[in-house]
Design a protein that fits this description.
The protein is mainly α. About 80% of the residues lie in helices and about 0% in strands.
């Protein structure tokens, strides 16, 4: 909910913190970076200190940091808080997933529990988009955009209380040690890559931005060497580099990279365009709810269709996304938009997303040995969050570069067209890498059902 509620409320947050275009990009990106870098470490923390203890502490910290976000007075304060909000989420979420494995040992019960978990996640995305549009328009609350973050206080505190009272206490297993050097190197790599991509455009690409980009490549080399060395010494690395010896896994990671570069940059550029066309945040939120409903409906169908038709379902979904993005360009040309047509286009785009996203994990893991499945899942999640951050930096940067300092409606439309064509190209790459994958239906079915 927190990811989607922020996406829709971008204009209100930007105005509230008197931020620049890059500031608002960082509001999204820094949360994702904190989540991506610490996800594997957060999962291991549950084994090392106990799942219940980490879940309760991380959820409470998420609530506290959400309050800091809601009370932030400057862009710098909000962005620092958003990074640590992502870190706390990275420690909280894996414990919930791990608890499902513990509380539901039977495969039938576990499948039902994971289905409920997925349904809650899908519903939360729709609720987040709705609230992101409605909350900033509450007139009787001063600076009502802050409710986007403060709403986590009552929800989170109730979750902390219920977890403390009802989750069974588990004994720490002390399994594995934290890869502090790996976390530091990966954090440095991602920050040095994404920060200059976002800030460089506004600052005229000074030397330190180019230096950071070059430094990210150097840090990546050191990170890979560090991970290989730990693996060779029988120590637990942050990422298991043996995974990249599997051709299909590499293709799957390319699919994840290019797909998720589109995923959230789509929301960023569409929200900014709709604001430029004069849409209120409430109307924008309702529009994206329509897209979310299409996603949820298609995702429920895709889980049943993928075991039968394999990657053809994902290819069809990508084709639908490409066609409907082109329809976005055709429809969103002025403030006099036919709302009914727009609702339809957004709904169909959502069905394309729902046909692809639920099965991407199966694509990445379908030929991975069981012993490496856990490491592959963590790597998938890290790639996912990193790709979203890159998409915000690259596609968002293209949009704001085309937009200029004092845009009118035609500037918004022109910038949107260029950025959306970029996303169409990225989806074309997804389609290409899907074509490279073998189309075994049975393997897909086994992974999805598992």
């Amino acid at each position: 909910m927190d990811i989607f509620i922020v996406n829709v409320a971008i204009p209100a947050i930007k105005a509230g913190i008197r931020g620049s275009d890059s500031d608002i990009q960082l509001v999204i990106v820094l949360y994702l970076l904190g989540y991506a870098v610490f996800l594997v470490t957060g999962s291991r923390a549950g084994d090392y200190f106990g799942k219940k203890r980490i879940f309760v502490v991380a959820t409470f910290m998420f609530v506290v940091i959400s309050a800091v976000c809601g009370l932030a007075q400057t862009a710098w304060q909000l962005n620092v808080a958003r990074f640590f909000q992502g870190v706390s989420a990275a420690c909280m979420i894996p414990q919930g997933i791990n608890y499902i494995q513990v509380l539901f040992p039977g495969s039938g019960e576990r499948t039902k529990a994971l289905g409920i978990y997925g349904s809650v996640a899908g519903s939360a995305s729709v609720i987040g988009q709705f609230l992101g549009g409605i909350l900033p328009e509450i007139e009787f609350v001063p600076e009502s955009w802050r409710l986007i973050f403060l709403i986590n206080l009552p929800i989170g505190l109730v979750a902390v209380l219920l977890a403390w009272l009802f989750l069974p206490r588990d004994a720490p297993t002390r399994a594995g040690a934290f890869d502090h050097a790996g976390v530091a190197l990966l954090t440095g790599t991602l920050v040095c890559l994404t920060y200059p991509l976002i800030r460089g455009r506004e600052l005229g690409w000074p030397g330190w931005c180019l230096g950071m980009l070059a430094g990210s490549a150097v840090l990546l080399v050191f990170f890979i060497r560090d991970q290989k060395l730990k693996l060779g010494n029988d120590r637990q690395p942050l990422l298991d580099v043996r995974l990249f010896g599997f051709r299909d896994f590499n293709i799957g990671m390319a699919i994840v990279l290019f797909y998720f570069m589109v995923q959230d940059s789509y929301f960023l550029i569409n929200v900014m365009l709709l604001e430029g066309l004069g849409f209120s945040s409430g109307e924008t939120g309702i529009l994206f709810v329509c897209q979310g409903v299409g996603y949820v409906a298609a995702s429920l169908a895709a889980v049943r269709l993928v075991p039968v038709y394999g990657k053809k379902v994902l290819q069809a979904g990508i084709l639908v996304m490409i066609v409907t993005l082109l329809l976005h360009i055709a429809v969103l040309r002025s403030a006099e938009v036919n709302r009914n047509v727009l609702y339809f286009v957004l709904f169909i785009y959502g069905t394309g997303c729902g046909s692809v996203l639920p099965s991407l994990l199966a694509v990445a893991l379908k030929n991975i040995p069981v012993g490496l499945a856990g490491a592959a899942s963590g790597t998938f999640s890290t790639f996912q969050q990193t790709a979203i951050a890159l998409g915000i930096g690259v596609t968002g940067g293209i949009f704001f570069t085309q937009l200029g300092p004092h845009p009118d409606v035609s500037d918004f439309v022109s910038a949107y067209r260029v950025a959306t064509v970029c996303n169409v190209g990225l989806l074309g790459l997804v389609g290409f890498f899907l074509w490279l994958l073998p189309g075994s239906k049975g393997v897909y079915g086994d992974v999805v059902s598992h």
